[in-house]
Amino acid sequence: MKQALPVSLLMAVLAWSSHAAEIDLRITGPVVQKALPSGSGLTWHAGKYFVVGDDSPYLFTLNRKYAITDRSTLQDFPIQKSGRIAKDAKPDYEAMATVVWKGVPWNLILASGSKKGTRETGLLVAVDGKSAPLVRDMTELYRDLAALARLKAAQLVNIEAVAVAHDDIYLFNRGNADRNLLFKVALGDFMAYMTGQADRIKDIQLHEATLPRLKGQEAGFSGADFWPERESLVYSASVERTGNASDDGAVLGSYVGLIPLSTLKQGASLDLRQSAQRVSKAGVPLTTKVESVALTQTDRRRATGALVSDNDNGSSEFFDIVLTMKPSPAR
Questions:
Q1: C-alpha span between 11 and 54 (Å, rounded)
Q2: Contact yes or no for 91/71 (Cβ under 8 A)
Q3: How many CB atoms sit inside 10 A of residue 6's CB?
Q4: Is 330 exposed, middle or buried (0-12, 13-18, 19+ CB in 10 A)?
Q5: SS3 at position 322
Q6: What's the maximum distance between 2 C-alpha atoms anywhere in the chain?
Q7: Distance CA 16, CA 8 (A)
Q8: Which residue, 35, 113, 193, 278, has fewest beta-carbon neighbours within 10 Å?
Q9: What is the DSSP letter of 79?
């Protein structure tokens, strides 16, 4: 049985939900990249995009026009003729963020955790590519996340996005198997775990989120980045007709929205149904499964960046985006 929120906290959550900061989303594209299968994680650093696919063994480097300029092997896997890893063996790299730790930039790559053993790996890859990836077994952390959220089984964890904001890191659980969840961890604690200096993370903050529905199916978190001038997380969410974390389903559409850090009070739930923006082009909703979002340039009012979509056909689609803050409604 869920514990009732204190009245003061409930009022704050409801107030934020009713007057959430809204964005105008403009999209151009797509650019289809057939040599990059199943794009699922996207970051931007030092003038380059870095991309992983959920059934690919490579970390790809792309230029601003989404042309592949380099690729490196993350882990060795047998590859099919299609260039993809078989579904029952794929590592399911789904979440990626740039982490600057002790002055060194790293690509943090996380498997989803949705399958025991094969999908419970975390990687730290130096952006300069001068050292081998650091590989971490994430089993204990994923078990702890499942226990904290009271998931019926550990494999209902489905981490699809990760973002770093100041001294904290945020893990987004996609709700196609259970619920949309947001876990907050101190960056220092997370990096101690990733580098093997700690076996557990004791302090984890949990938030439940409600996202829009399409044809009866709730959208699920799929990507995230940090907009520093807005002190907000930018997230992507997608909708497909599936009831678990493993099987693909018919793609219905996607959303982009903001989560101000100020709303992430201990225990607060997030109602994102009204503020999420449907991914559309010239007013027409796009039937695309957005998997990740990366910002390239930001200021107080405007942000530019990219989305990557995986439509389950072995290729990836990239879109340029512009986010502009809408005027706040009169109070």
A1: 40
A2: no
A3: 10
A4: exposed
A5: strand
A6: 59
A7: 13
A8: 35
A9: B
pLDDT tens readout for residues 140-185: 999 999 999 999 888 889 999 999 999 999 999 999 878 999 999 9
Give 296: exposed, middle or buried? Use CB within 10 Å, 0-12, 13-18, 19+: middle
Query: How far does CA 28 lie from the centroid of its chain?
Result: 21
Tokens of 121: 């790996």
pTM: 0.90
Domain map (residue ranges) of the chain: 19-325
User: What is the 3 state secondary structure string of 233-287?
Assistant: EEEEEEEEECCCCCCCCEEEEEEEEEEEHHHCCCCCCEECCCCCEECEECCEECC
Q: Distance from CA of residue 285 to its chain's centroid?
A: 21
User: CB 167: neighbour CB atoms within 10 A?
Assistant: 9
CATH number of 19-325: 2.120.10
